[in-house]
């Protein structure tokens, strides 16, 4: 569940899960990236008190903030350091999402080994994705209190270890339980990695980093079946989980080298260190107005209730969440559908029969590249608008295009999967699906962020929760649907469902302002309100002159 960025940003933190980005931090100068690092955290103890506002008393403590050329400030780290950290959190997210679908390569041997039905075996996929739905409700508020680094250290280790449990399972029950907890603990990067990026990059510089990161939650499921298919065909199914343990274990060890990036945590630590060393009273600028009741349990309660309130009372949240959930469900349905159309119908092996998924990944990459171009245009329009954020509907034109492209790809795939058609034709059809999917996710999530502002994290949490539930349960009825309807009509049914959702971005692009006016939670960005007020005042003056 992704974090809402600054409303003037050009890309949402994460297409998958909600977390929290560092609040806007006042700094002594405008330097952001590549500033010389002349102050180290350990030097804080000798900094003059005059650098901070306040008197150093309990009633008027020194207010700690980041200083010029402050190497403890993530915004002032070097570009090289920022990109190394970005690569780490992106690959950590890729590792977790990859783990969801690589399991599909071992379905048949797992069924044979434990003597269970395909439905029971598919629960290993369902439970893993269910962990994505519920884990962020815990890890997101925890990161607000304890920072990014500690939460990663406490969750990614268990994520790796539960794959040992899967690899050594002696019964299906053990395997399924370990799969759920692997998804539950593994969801922390999906929750907080986008926040790490927003901690380091200002809004004007983060589009590329967030585009790369945003691709990972979707690229992982696209490449997982191909890798899992070859491992399942030429090695033991247990090797699948040993591979995941090696991948996740390596990412865990590298991730431990990543420093804390969450500004509230860093400033709080600095204030505590200065208070201890000097005997004076210091407080983080972000703790000045801290809610005394904002305990961990309060935050969990808010995370649990607010998304459901928005989901069932806000038409915008419900429709866009349903749209995203449907598409995500289709992606996971294809984990069972593609093997049926290429392995069963064409007689391909599980390895080669899973390669068509790579076409989805190619489409996703193309979609992200297109979105980078869209970001540039949005940034140019923003500059023309004097830096005043645009209306949320400015996010939807590319979503309208994607809403048309995606069902076209699905219908194309549905009626070219028969063996009489050359295999390259249906494989190419999967690329428009991946292209449309990633653009719909990015466009609609940005729309929700711009529309809901202060409750954007909850809006995205609702979106991700419903999406994860669809992704978890759709694979359970894939085989039955394909056997009952046949490959062509089963896929056609899914294509019609996607087509039924196509009008959503068109309707909101045209009637969005009217819909927002009726919302209880939507609020206009203050800069937009101020700009409208100035325009109205100017118009009033002109009328007076007349």
UniProtKB/TrEMBL annotation:
Q: How does it sit in the membrane?
A: Multi-pass membrane protein
One Pfam family named in its UniProt record: MFS_1
Q: Which domain of life is it from?
A: Eukaryota
One example of the protein's molecular function in GO is: transmembrane transporter activity
**Keyword list, A-Z:** Cell membrane, Membrane, Transmembrane, Transmembrane helix, Transport
Q: List the transmembrane segments.
A: 83-103, 123-142, 207-227, 239-258, 308-335, 355-374, 394-415, 421-443, 455-477, 489-508
Instruction: Tell me where the signal peptide lies.
Output: none
Q: Where in the cell is it found?
A: Cell membrane
UniProt similarity note: Belongs to the major facilitator superfamily. DHA1 family. Polyamines/proton antiporter (TC 2.A.1.2.16) subfamily.
Mind telling me what this protein is named? Major facilitator superfamily domain-containing protein
Q: Which organism is it from?
A: Leucosporidium creatinivorum
């Amino acid at each position: 569940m992704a974090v809402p960025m600054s409303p003037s940003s050009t890309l949402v933190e994460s297409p998958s899960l909600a977390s929290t980005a560092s609040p806007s931090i006042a700094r002594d100068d405008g330097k952001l990236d590549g500033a010389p690092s002349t102050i180290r955290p350990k030097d804080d103890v000798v900094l003059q008190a005059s650098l901070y506002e306040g008197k150093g008393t309990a009633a008027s403590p020194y207010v700690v903030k980041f200083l010029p050329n402050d190497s403890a400030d993530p915004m002032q780290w070097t570009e090289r350091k920022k990109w190394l950290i970005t690569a780490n959190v992106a690959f950590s997210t890729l590792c977790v999402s990859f783990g969801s679908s690589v399991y599909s390569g071992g379905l048949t041997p797992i069924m044979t080994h434990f003597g269970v039905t395909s439905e029971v075996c598919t629960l290993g996929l369902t439970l893993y994705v269910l962990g994505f739905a519920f884990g962020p409700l815990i890890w997101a508020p925890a990161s607000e209190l304890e920072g990014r680094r500690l939460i990663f250290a406490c969750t990614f280790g268990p994520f790796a270890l539960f794959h040992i449990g899967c690899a050594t399972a002696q019964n299906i029950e053990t395997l399924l339980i370990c799969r759920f907890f692997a998804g539950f603990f593994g969801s922390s990067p999906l929750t907080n990695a986008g926040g790490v990026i927003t901690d380091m990059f200002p809004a004007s510089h983060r589009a590329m980093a967030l585009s790369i990161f945003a691709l990972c939650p979707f690229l992982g499921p696209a490449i997982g079946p191909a890798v899992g298919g070859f491992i399942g065909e030429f090695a033991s199914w247990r090797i699948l989980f040993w591979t995941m343990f090696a991948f996740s274990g390596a990412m865990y060890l590298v991730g431990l080298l990543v420093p804390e990036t969450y500004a509230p945590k860093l400033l709080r630590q600095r204030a505590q260190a200065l208070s201890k060393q000097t005997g004076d009273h210091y407080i983080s600028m972000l703790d000045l107005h801290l809610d005394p009741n904002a305990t961990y349990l309060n935050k969990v309660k808010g995370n649990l209730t607010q998304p459901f309130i928005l989901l069932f009372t806000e038409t915008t949240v419900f429709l866009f969440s349903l749209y995203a959930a449907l598409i995500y469900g289709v992606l996971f349905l294809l984990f069972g559908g593609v093997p049926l159309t290429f392995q069963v119908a064409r007689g391909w092996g599980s390895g080669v029969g899973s390669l068509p998924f790579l076409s989805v990944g190619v489409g996703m990459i193309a979609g992200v590249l297109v979105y980078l171009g869209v970001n540039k245009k949005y940034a140019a329009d923003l500059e023309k608008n004097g830096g005043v954020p645009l209306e949320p509907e400015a996010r939807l034109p590319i979503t309208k295009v994607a809403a048309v492209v995606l069902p076209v790809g699905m219908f194309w795939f549905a009626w070219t999967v028969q063996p009489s058609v050359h295999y390259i034709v249906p494989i190419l059809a999967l690329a428009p699906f991946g292209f449309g999917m990633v653009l719909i996710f990015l466009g609609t999530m940005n729309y929700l962020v711009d529309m809901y502002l202060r409750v954007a994290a909850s809006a995205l949490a609702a979106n991700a929760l419903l999406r994860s539930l669809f992704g978890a349960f759709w694979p359970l009825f894939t085989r039955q649907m394909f056997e009952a309807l046949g490959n062509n009509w089963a896929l056609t049914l899914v294509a019609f469902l996607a087509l039924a959702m196509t009008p959503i971005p068109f309707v909101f692009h045209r009637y969005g302002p009217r819909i927002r006016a009726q919302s209880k939670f939507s609020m206009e960005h203050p800069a937009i309100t101020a700009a409208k007020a100035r325009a109205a005042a100017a118009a009033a003056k002109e009328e007076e002159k007349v």
